[in-house]
Design a protein that fits this description.
The structure is a homodimer of 382-residue chains. The first copy, chain A, has 382 residues and is α/β, with parallel strands linked by helices. Chain A is built from 16 helices and 13 strands.
Chain lengths: 382, 382
């Protein structure tokens, strides 16, 4: 029985993680979870899984929830609460499924507590990849990917030697606007952007798919997860999202992981790794039903966020922190109708241009640059 | 430095195997080889690779060749010669690339001599899978696939547990006539049949691709290589031959091996296994250049040989021996314009219908049924 902690249990990845746990009650036990604003869902989850520890955002939420949960559940709150969930004694694996840079500190704490990290929070590696991977190495802790693309690469690498890898090829659906030219992107609405063709995900990541920033963040994440230079990371447009990503070895052999788009597969793989478990609810992939798979090269001029991401990643230091913070704020502004869709790119470009890079930043540097960048983005709007 | 013996060095797989050896002179050394009728090519190969031992088909060929080879090369002949090559003392790996059931006895001898077997000769497993796999187990000998499909499955299984496998999916290009209906197959010529769309291979296997018997034999081979019931072996039409085959696990995750069609990749993998080596001459797979991959279900009524193969495989015993022997003779007759293309299927059907199955046949039983079936096929033509 593996003890599992989940940061962000009420989010898209969080709820799917809990579904995986529900399918394998004999293998996994939820020992701690953190939740966001959806206290009604949190209450349901608590009654279903009876975790001994739950963390909420505010002390007010803590009071609200505490009166409604079973006796065995302790409710905590705030940043300290997140850390407590991340380091819960009986947890073997921490699933980090929160959105944004709030996932960083709990991840570092969990690594120090020798928890295996199942990482769905991209920002942790994007903003502090050097700190997180170094701490994981020092503590002998595994970082397991939860993103479908990184899980695909990780699965394709099983039984292989890393020094025989030639490149990885991350596939990209192209998001809601993949068939639109840049001209056609003028005036697209939030509603349009939220219609992702293949995956059912949260709002932030769906917008990031439309701008292709999601893929850019994945490139940076892959750089850290697999310890690869950016020259060995390619991106390929593949609109069906059936091939989740690929690895090419030095002998020209390519290993790919495929499946119907269902995040529960990579989530379950991270939890069961190195073993695999049955997934009865999952839909079998029959390629003769799909008929065709399409591939196209990625145009960095069409998808400017990809260019920003590669460039920030190669420059390193605090540049990816700026990229990520500017993007988070810009997407938030877009979702609130305070910024146009193409304005997201402009805001990120400006934030990157003005920033003076700090090499090998400390956690304090990163948090400072993160805040400063967010303030800068807002200053552009007022 | 691995010592390599090659049975069938002048054939399609044989010459490509020697090309792999030539690319890695520091890793592999050719210690023995057998050749067929092409003595001119054999002579060239001998001068290039200087193997200490060469076997030819007849004593006459032996005399012809012996006078033309360097001093260090000994020339032997006949079935004994094949065995001598297969068991050559300094060989670590035997590449069995002969065509037809002649490959069986040398393979068994090589297994007893504890050689790793790189198997391109399908008939060995099709006709005597139970004997070969049992002997390999007893001797602790590895059977490594050389066929691109089986190599793909083998590669996809690295680092995985066999008991977590749900099914394998063998891809089939469909061969020269994949777009023709059964009616349109009336009157097709040998020349038409020899035009394989993707792979450059020998005549026998190219015809087998057109009838789909090649895929049928691969299904039976996969049954033995991976110890799987036929219910767990699916075939999928995929005309580009880019996805070489796939494995589906119990968690619905599918791992595939892909590449541009080049037999040197699976050959080299069998020789370098479990490592991979550079393959500079190979063409990199860029799926955006390919654009689309197509998939279609396999129609067993359109491709009757597939139905024969599954049925023979499930019945077991000497049925696959009949299937294979009848097919070999029928293809030979077709290549000599003594039988129509659709006549190949009819001949195989008749041979299977008349045969009384022997369960758990001995090697003698197999060889007897093989000869008897060939004689029967010829009796149909006269």
């Amino acid at each position: 029985m593996k003890g599992i902690s989940v940061l962000g249990a009420t989010g898209s990845i969080g709820t799917q993680t809990l579904d995986v746990l529900a399918n394998h009650r004999d293998k996994f036990r939820l020992v701690a979870m953190s939740v966001g604003k959806n206290l009604a869902l949190a209450e349901e989850q608590i009654h279903q899984f009876k975790p001994p520890l739950v963390s909420v955002m505010t002390d007010e939420d803590r009071k609200t929830l505490a009166s409604k949960v079973p006796e065995g559940t302790r409710v905590v709150c705030g940043e300290e609460g997140l850390i407590e969930v991340a380091t819960a004694e009986k947890a073997e694996i921490l699933v980090n499924a929160v959105i944004g840079s709030v996932g960083l500190a709990p991840t570092l704490a969990a690594i120090e507590a020798k928890k295996t990290i199942a990482l769905a929070n991209k920002e942790t590696l994007v903003t502090a990849g050097h700190l997180v991977t170094e701490k994981a190495r020092e503590n002998g802790v595994k970082l397991l990917p939860v993103d479908s693309e990184h899980s695909a690469i990780f699965q394709a690498l099983q039984g292989e030697r890393m020094d025989r890898l030639h490149r990885i090829i991350i596939t990209a659906s192209g998001g809601s606007f993949r068939d639109k030219s840049r001209d056609e992107l003028n005036g697209v609405t939030v509603e349009d952007a939220l219609k992702h063709p293949n995956w059912s995900m949260g709002a932030k990541i769906t917008i990031d798919s439309a701008t292709m920033m999601n893929k850019g963040l994945e490139v940076i994440e892959a750089h850290w997860l697999f310890n690869l230079p950016y020259e060995k990371i390619d991106v390929l447009l593949h609109k069906e999202s059936i091939i989740h990503s690929m690895v090419e070895f030095v002998d020209r052999s390519v290993i790919a992981q495929l499946g119907t788009p269902d995040m529960r597969v990579p989530i379950q793989y991270a939890l069961s790794y190195p073993d695999r478990l049955e997934f009865h609810k999952g839909q079998q992939l029959n390629l003769w039903e799909v008929g065709k798979l399409h591939f196209a090269p990625l145009d960095m001029e069409r998808f400017r966020c990809m260019a920003f991401a590669y460039e920030s990643g190669k420059q390193g230091g605090t540049m990816p922190t700026v990229l990520n913070a500017a993007n988070e704020e810009a997407v938030e502004l877009f979702l609130n109708n305070q910024l146009s869709f193409l304005g997201i790119e402009d805001v990120i470009e400006k934030a990157l241009e003005r920033h003076e890079r700090i090499d090998s930043p400390s956690l304090a540097d990163i948090l400072h640059v993160d805040q400063e960048t967010r303030a800068f983005v807002h200053s552009l709007i007022k």
